[in-house]
Amino acid sequence: MLSVQKRRIAAFATAVIAFAAVSSSSALAQKKYDTGATDAEIKIGNIMPYSGPASAYGVIGKTEAAYFKKINAEGGINGRKIDFISYDDSYSPPKAVEQARKLVESDEVLLLFNPLGTPSNSAIQKYLNAKKIPQLFVATGATKWNDPKNFPWTMGWQPSYQSEARIYAKYLMKEKPDGKIAVMYQNDDFGKDYLKGLKDGLGAKASMIIAEESYETSEPTIDNHIVKLKATGADVFIDIATPKFAAQAIKKIAEIEWKPLHIVSNVSASVGGVIKPAGFENSQGILSAAYAKDGADPQWDNDPGMKKFYAFLEKYYPDANKLDGSVVYGYGAAQTMAKVLEMSGDNLTRENVMKQAASLKAFAPDTLLPGVKINTSATDFAPIEQLQMMRFKGEKWDLFGDIISGELSN
Amino acid sequence: MSAAQEVVTEAPAIDAVPKRAMTLGYGTSLVMLAVLILVPLFVKNFIIFQLTMLLIYGLAVLALNILTGGSGQFSLGQSAFYAVGAYTSAILMETFNVNYALTLPVSGVICFAFGFLFGLPALRLSGIYLALATFALATAMPQLLKLNVFEPWTGGVQGLVVTKPDAPFGLPISQDMWLYYFTLVITIGIYIFSVNLLKSRSGRAFMAIRDNEIAASAMGIDVALYKTLAFGVSAGITGVAGALGAIAVQFVAPDSYTIQLAISLFLGMVVGGVGWLPGSIVGSAFIIFVPNIAEGISKGLSGAVFGVLLFLVIFLVPHGARQVAVLGQQLIGKFRKS
Amino acid sequence: MELFTNQVLAGIATGAIYACMALAIVMIYQAIDHLNFAQGEMAMFSTFIAWQLMQWGVPYWGAFVITVAFSFAAGIIIERLLFKPLAKAPILTNVAGFIALYSIVNSVAGLIWDFTIKQFPTPFGSSPFLGSQLISTHQAGMIGVTLLLLLLLFFFFRFTRMGLAMRAAAALPESARLVGINTSWMIALGWGMAAAIGSIAGMMIAPVVFLEPNMMLGVLIYGFAAAVLGGLTSPFGAVIGGFLVGIFENLTGTYIPGVGNELKLPIALALIVIVLVVKPAGLFGRPIVKRV
């Protein structure tokens, strides 16, 4: 029997040798493929809040999983199946970091697609860029994702909150230049980003805003904020809220018989998710903007793109709530991802995928409004920048005006 | 007995852990230590990162064990101290370019002071009322971190990105591995300190207060001092854990430190065994890995699966991992005898 | 001055929500001496059941009665199955059990009914109450229902044998057993009643906040604060506490400059803590005398 001392040395020596062996083997970078892509499959990673306070958005991940199932059933992309691996982060940044590292280092995915939430994406951005892994089509409208110079591996998808707010600002300055604006906003990155866009868009006329009320998602109801804002005498009300609170606002405004020019953010413009529960009769004349078609809107029933969407739902995700804007969103984003992978052909290196993502020209997924197209370039990492304003009338949204580009001059 | 008052002869809300059973035996401790030192040499960086988080949350649960299991004060507010420690470290590192190792004692001291000060008004509260007060603290913290006035330092809702340190002296090991061993050394140090604290006079004072506050006071223990001291020490350790967490995750934001974290730490303490310091790491493993397991079983029902697993644990071992360890010891004892 | 009155009235309206929830919390506290974290989720689940019944064509009051009865039974079943085995376990383990229950109920509700908001009808209509634009008829109705519940609870505890037995079982279990009270079933009964009251609270609250699985978290926090403020042993205190929390929260948001809006909840909670330091059993609770 070896003495305790010698045993310890032997153990240590073994450990050192094992360690050296493990660290010297590195992934062979082949010409066509990076880790995560092979002749047979492409692995893509995703992080969504399937539990916790933001679990309403988990539906996006489920829709995307169903979409890739459809792609696989139809033969895959360039003959390769898509392995869509999605993990839950409960909207918690430390958990998002853990899941991102798991996807990259343990599951060895080619790229991360549509991770959701500004805090989670902020947490993993540096890591992914340092490792040169594409962080594509992030599911958040924060403006900061369009920064190819500093973060060449990160790209957004939906129109940024600031660009949407600017569109409203432009509209107000033209249609109601002497309006008194009251703003209610959610006290997080979403609300604050929007508010900034609004103020920047109004520019010198930012004094039109006479009242700003923030609210927390922990509040059961925002009714008292509405009461307070009515008392300011404002005649324009801008509602930067998530669906539940937007619906409460619409209802309360009707109850207290306040009749401002009511603008609601695109995030909460879903007919099925917000307007119907709040009451059609309470929502007449509300303004918003859209870049995608609404699943509850009968005007798209015969639209070829939406027909494909409904067919997809019926076959691959029958439980889905068609009226949920998140479902439409997931489909559109997944379709964009599929397009980029298709464009990458047999060169499935991360660098090439990123390059293809930055070369989308006038690409129109099935679910975007007619006229809204995806365009990207080496200096433009904001795929969708166009919106069209709409007014609620009867039981649906009436689009009006031109397709406006909310481009921010970066 | 007057109907206008409720007379309560309270059984202690928290079980006393027999002193003998408070730590692991020497043999088990050495085995644990060996495992903690050797395992990272054989696994991928990502697993090392998870192990680092295991140690960090273990520290936070340990701190809660001292507070609740040691001095009997129920706290749902540990996430607040964790957040203060994390932000202190992040701000020092990013704005003032302080070396990461130095930020730890600073975080610890600041959180100690914070905990001590919080303990003062909390003196008159106990049980459910103290729970409410600590809960208030936990919900207030993310709000405070988001405030516009603090934004130039805290980064507001966007948070701060933290730079991970490289191994010093150009050692050929990854950042993850270096951070792991760094954390391990600190964890062992704090663990030894905590064990000694609970065995010392102060520790006995804590436990006397936990078991029967009025009797303790009648016997001459300065209840106010020891209760606030317990809060301070617990907060200080949690702050150090938070600082390490900030470095490991490389990011701080208000959303990282919500009441969910405080609840998780509480669950970790219960699963590990209240008042049983070695159980902290078991509790920490539970709160890190069981949600992953639950997600693996069912994505749509991950919360439900987690709840069911938690129920299973508390049905089988209501006293947490300590019960398992005691059973294990008894089995080994029987084995030896035969 | 008008703004002040408006905010107070609005606070009373919101406070009715908290008061409703606080009643359920006090109920469970009377039975088991601890707060059940899952109370809100159980109320939410009950409200979903009511909603589902109405989707299937059951008229409102029919669904209401069925739901209350179902919740009562469910509360008893949950207690017998999940918490009776934990009766001998330490309190903290029980609290962990509540958290587990919360997790399960929330997740299952999300799976069955998904997370889009749903409209929940009110039997009281939504027009302005007495011409006031601040309180709708529904909110007035909610206050009315809360007060009615309060009255019923008062009678139950004060004037019925069962109520007396439950109070005895909670206050002095040993002595209660000696006089033949089945303390174990008293606890189950307490759970059932708390679940039933919770379901009523849920059905009152949902028309205002919209029904979805996460609707109760905020309400629970405020309800808890209200119950503690009013005194955990006093249903009357719980209701008053609810209104006070609603009013105070509104005034904080309106009058404290700058941070008042963002720190509404922490400030409200801080105030309650201060009240507790002065009056440890809450405003209307019976003072607790501890003996060694």
Write the layout of secondary structure elements.
The complex is a heterotrimer of chains A (about 400), B (about 350) and C (about 290).
Chain A lengths: L3 H21 L16 E8 L9 H16 L7 E8 L4 H14 L4 E3 L4 H13 L4 E2 L24 H15 L5 E6 L2 H14 L6 E7 L7 H8 L5 E5 L2 H13 L5 E4 L6 H8 L8 E4 L13 H13 L8 H20 L5 H8 L28 E8 L2 E10 L5
Helix pairs in contact in A: 2-11, 3-4, 5-6, 7-8, 8-9, 11-12
Chain B lengths: L5 E3 L17 H13 L6 H26 L7 H17 L5 H20 L7 H20 L4 H4 L5 E2 L13 H25 L1 H11 L1 H6 L4 H27 L1 E2 L6 H14 L6 H19 L4 H15 L4 H17 L1
Antiparallel strand pairs in B: 2-3
Helix pairs in contact in B: 2-7, 2-10, 2-11, 2-12, 3-4, 3-5, 3-10, 4-10, 7-8, 8-10, 11-12, 12-13
Chain C lengths: L1 H31 L6 H17 L4 H24 L7 H23 L14 E2 L2 E5 H23 L1 H11 L1 H6 L4 H27 L6 H15 L4 H21 L8 H15 L9 E3 L2
Your description of this structure?
The complex is a heterotrimer of chains A (410), B (338) and C (292). By secondary structure, chain A is of the alpha/beta class. Chain A has two domains: 41-159 and 302-379, Response regulator (Rossmann fold, 3-Layer(aba) Sandwich); 161-290 and 389-405, Response regulator (Rossmann fold, 3-Layer(aba) Sandwich). Chain A has helices spanning 4-24, 58-73, 93-106, 118-130, 161-175, 189-202, 223-230, 243-255, 271-278, 304-316, 325-344, 350-357, and strands at 41-48, 81-88, 111-113, 135-136, 181-186, 209-215, 236-240, 261-264, 287-290, 386-393, 396-405. In chain A, helix 8 links the parallel strand 7 and strand 8. Chain A is globular, with a radius of gyration of 24 Å. Mean pLDDT of chain A is 87; it is low at 20-30. With 338 residues, chain B is an all-alpha fold. Chain B has one domain. Chain B has 14 helices and three strands. Chain B has helices spanning 26-38, 45-70, 78-94, 100-119, 127-146, 151-154, 175-199, 201-211, 213-218, 223-249, 259-272, 279-297, 302-316, 321-337; strands spanning 6-8, 160-161, 251-252. Chain B has a two-stranded antiparallel ribbon. In chain B, helix 2 crosses helix 12, helix 3 packs across helix 10 and helix 12 (279-297) packs antiparallel against helix 13 (302-316). The model of chain B is unreliable at 1-6 (pLDDT under 50). The model of chain C has no long low-confidence stretch (mean pLDDT 85). Chain C starts with a helix and ends with a strand. The relative contact order of chain C is 0.19. Chain C has one domain: ABC transporter involved in vitamin B12 uptake, BtuC, CATH 1.10.3470. Chain C is globular and about 60 Å long. Helix content of chain C is 73%, strand content 3%. Chain C contains eleven helices and three strands; from the N terminus they run ααααββαααααααβ. Chain C has helices spanning 2-32, 39-55, 60-83, 91-113, 137-159, 161-171, 173-178, 183-209, 216-230, 235-255, 264-278; strands at 128-129, 132-136, 288-290. By secondary structure, chain C is mainly alpha-helical. At the B-C interface, strand 1, helix 5, helix 9, helix 11 and helix 13 of B face helix 4, helix 9, helix 11 and strand 3 of C.
